[in-house]
Amino acid sequence: ICGHLFSHKIDRVLCANRDQVLEQLGICADEDQVFEVVGKNKAKLNENHVGCAVGMLWQFQKEKPQMLRTVELIKSHPEFLTLRVLAENKIELMGDVMLVDMLYNILRLSVDPCDSLVQHLVSEAWLRLCRFPMSSLSKFAVCLSDQHLQHSPLMGQITNILNQKLSSIDDARILTILMICVSPLVSPTLRDKLINKADCVLDTMDPSHYNNPRRMVQFLRNIKYSYRPLLEKCNHNLLHNVPLMDAENLGIILGLYQSLQFNNCDFRLAAKQRLIELVDSSTDPLSFTKLFVTLAPMAGLDTKERLESIALILADELNAQQALAVAETLEEIHSRNLLLIQKIASVIHKNLQVYRSMELARVTQAMILLHYQSPEFFTKLRNILVHFLQYSVYPYEVTMLTRVLSMLPSPRLDTSVISRVDAVLPQCNLNDLNTFAVVIAKWLRNDPSYRHSTPIKYVRLLQTLNHCGRERLCKADRLDLLLEELKYMSGEWFEEMLLKETMVTLQRLKGQISWTNVPELSLFLTRINYLCAPLMDSIASATMEDINKMHYSSMYATLLPFAVLNYDSPRVDELFDICIQHFLPHISSFDPHLLVLFGYTLAVADCFPEDMVREIFNVDFLAKLDSQLETLPDALNMRIRLRLMELNRAVCLECPEFQVPWFHERYCQQLHKKGNGFITPVQQQIHKMLGEVLGGVNCAKAAVFTPYFYRVDFECVLDRHRKALSYSEQSQLQIPGDGEVRWGLDSVGKERSELPQGAQRIAVDFLDTKSFCKNSRHMKGEAMMRKRHLEILGYHVVQIPHFEWNSMELSTQDAWKEYLRKKIFTDLDLFS
């Protein structure tokens, strides 16, 4: 009896200790059942019940596809208000983990960050910050990012805690989430520590968890640091997981790679194949939009047409953001599907009031570049853009809105726009200032009064613009930040107003040139076509000093200005040798298109590493290159094919011992058919003068195509007595009915006749500004290579620089003729 009574007493105690509310919540199958339990037990609910209920509400939503979620219904439910009130009253009773979970779930259920519950949760979390476990710290960091508090003192404290406890973090998910959240605040030292830690964690994590390496790549994108060793390690993992990915993840990764200028051939090809497999299952607007945006830019013609057909069917079901994404992709692939463009434009038109300012800027650019015609659409769009601009206080936003406004037709310019631009100019970086310069130039051209005088409103703007640009350069004290601002600088304003000051500033900061910024500086100097010996020497010194720290892929960018600008100094040969030896062991790891560009660059510098030539002109490599080119944008595709042809030509001419065949004859013929034969007035003038100097128009043949398809402006042949021989066919400029002057094209594809003994072919080329560095009369590498090749083909090459032909010394007919006579006859005698 005693035993039975004791057992009954134990059962009563256990029953009393059981939490019946938690048990009821635990068996709920949907949100309605959760709310039912909450409604029946309001008086009994403690902090654990509230946390469990809110967590379950988000979990049910999370398990649903995006389109089927009902967050708004949950927010408006009366029992959800009950949960919010109870949660706010019980914040101090919550444990650390529960506190952060509550904040996270509440934000996921779209409660406004300004809501008092969210504010109190954040405040309490701040007080407990130092005792949070790392899992809760990472989740809290996500909550702050959701509230746009990435630059807050609170995030600064999290960054400090991460720095102190980094060695104790072994969970890749926790680490990568924190990396992304604190990315706006990391110092170079912490950046390097995080990268090293990420590298170690990659080796121990589950390789199927591809979101971790994806977040590492996102971290690198956020801090604008293309650290190749970590990128390649992440790519290796991501590549193996491509078969598991959906279109959204593939699109995110490809977008990150593009931002980091990391175009991995294997990943692009695998992603393309996976996306094609997903076409049939992507039947709803959400999944199809993500697929279309990612696949269309790298798809073949048949696949593009198929995607456009599906888009046409789904167009009316797209929401505002989906329609914008499709429109931008149509512009990217240069679509001319007018019916689809009109349908997408119709959806966008109906939703113009929904878009935020930066989305409207994207709408404007896409629809203008798609050549969409609708005065009503663009009038409405313009009014909305002006409204946003009048109230914007962010320089980047004002810049973007002003730029797209200048793309729209407008009878007049609002003074409010000019006032807003004037107000933000002192806050703008160099890139934004350059954008405003382009915009102001466009306003000037479109202003009717500009034909008589420059309106004072523009004069003041330009003065402010110039002052701000020079002041920003004068205050620049960090080379890395300056190079980031200069990355996309171009155009007349920059070249005329800031280029010299920019070079002065770069030379002032040349002490900061190191192996980390050599590639960026090299690319900038190449792009602006500016030869600066002190900077080039500093680049060479920094590279040779720390070559082992540099990634092999950066050798291309490093050597580019030395080849393109034809810079020579006592250390340049040594630099090329060191860089070539550094990248050759990794030659098979190069992306095909990058290796072609690198090979061409070295060829310009008269450098032909045999291992590189063998690697490129290999059947397997060329097949892989063809596959990669199909995934690249058309402009890049054409550029790579042209560089491959030019490299093939250079190897055939300069390295016949490699026995590489010339396989671009048909390509060159097709290229010629697509090209035009228009000539400049200067070339017409030279042709006429040559006829007079040589003894007749038939003695100078225009637009001659040589073997290997070089086109020389003029060719003539001198016999052994230095007398010009007449061509059998008349050489003349053809002037058709349309009045355009073209070269005669009779020579294309025809065999060259044998020369009489002792005769010499002369190639006469006019060299315009593109053949010389911007700041000097120093001839660039490509013009030098062309001369080398023509000489190998048997020509005596006469180059006529533009600055000589257009000089004051050559201002009469006789002077020009004497100049040509000396170039052709005297120089030939010297080289004979």
From TrEMBL:
Q: Which residue range or ranges hold the RAP domain?
A: 762-822
Protein species of origin: Esox lucius
Its GO CC terms are: mitochondrial matrix; ribonucleoprotein granule
User: A Gene Ontology molecular-function term?
Assistant: RNA binding
Q: Name one Pfam family in it.
A: RAP
| Subcellular localization, as worded in the UniProt entry | Mitochondrion
Biological process terms from the Gene Ontology for this record are:
mitochondrial RNA processing; regulation of mitochondrial mRNA stability
| Gene designation | FASTKD1
Q: Which SMART domains match?
A: RAP
Protein name, UniProt field: RAP domain-containing protein
The family database entries (InterPro entries) matched by this protein are listed as: FAST_2, FAST_kinase, FAST_Leu-rich, RAP
Keyword annotations of the record: Mitochondrion
Q: Which PROSITE patterns match?
A: RAP
Chief place of localization:
mitochondrion
